[in-house]
Write a structure and sequence with these properties.
about 10% strand, 4-stranded mixed sheet, Fumarate Reductase Iron-sulfur Protein, Chain B, domain 2, Rossmann fold
Length: about 475
Amino acid sequence: MSFVSQFKAQAQVMTGDLRHRKFIRRALRNYETVRDARKASFQDWPGARQRAAETKWQAVNHLDQHLEQFAAKLESRGTKVHWATTAAQAREIILKIVHDKQAKSVIKSKAMTSEEIHLNDALEHAGLNVVESDLGELIVQLRKETPYHIVFPSMHLTRDEISELFQRELGAAATNDPEELTMIARRALRKKYLTADIGITGANFAIAETGMISITENEGNARLTAALPKTMISLLGIEKVLPRMDDLALFLPLLATMGTGQQLTCYNTLYSGPRQPGETDGPEEWHVVLLDNHRTELLADAEQRDALHCIRCGACLNVCPIFRNVGGHTYGTTYSGPIGSVITPHLRGLQEWKHLSSASSLCGACTETCPVKIDLHHHLLQNRRNAAKQKPSFGEQTAFKLFAFAANRPTLWNFGMTMARIFQPLQGAVKGSMLDPAKAWTKTRDLPPIAPESFKAWWRNRK
């Protein structure tokens, strides 16, 4: 089954699941309430967005310089920096590190880049025991699912469903108390931190000026993932770079506000290198893997380059009417929602994934909410245009040529409109059938009624 067929089939199932839609909408309405309260605490919210957009513009448009500076600073303190052009190359680099260390177990904190390159599958295929330490990621891992949402991986599940999962997989007692569910996961993870040979993290930001990565979290699991295993690996996309340390003063509260509706996340940690002489904790060896995986191709597209500004806050997913109705898993790819619909055709192939750019109402809510002002809804249109230009549809080409031919000939156009008014009552009888020329449209909606007379006719007869 093709990706577009899978999307349509899953979307039909999910839009018919009223319980799921009600649950997700209620969760996102609660998010909107706390998000708006935090936005109001900014002295100048539009100014903060503009400053963030300009900072990311500077970072992305001088990405080569910032990456060189970032890597040099890291290497000067003993960090081993690896450059991965493709997902396969990134997996090979990490598997080689694991093999060289003769590792048997891996503990991971949240990293969407690891989902992007299917790292867990590769590690498990190599015989390693891989455990996700983020609570949401652990839940979907136990369910053998991918994350539902960029920020909230298990937001589609109720407490009762999570309790049943923990009873089945962890042998826990039944409970629907959130704190007790968290403690069950914590008890299961403690030993994993202590016995893991390697800890793998992602990164929220990479600071070129100082050669540090910034990880923001609410559970403290990333700190344990980085501090306890002897070897630490951080996998991050090259677009994560910020020019200066001072930029975090804006980006950390911005990410917390739009991601979870907090003023600041509970833990914000900077990592600058492996354990130095005299230090009591931290990894003995640290590897940073910088992932391209088609990002430089997007960088070369001046029209859509600002999609690399994304800080993975998930705000565009939260306001998207399509995401709210079809859910995260329907997209069938790592990045869902508007930002996923924009970048996935770049990362995984335009023709295979162009349908995501058509799964949009083009309401513009995503662009309006984006904290770094990515022009998301226009990029969806640009993807549609590029896909049609790259591989034109014979049917669409013919239809638009016929439309242009008629529209440029008033007599023919007026005759066509007259016939349409005559036969419009019959449209209801053939709606959705093989005889309906607008079947793709009328399958889920009605055609707009044709005016009884044209404007020119009304103007001529108005007296």
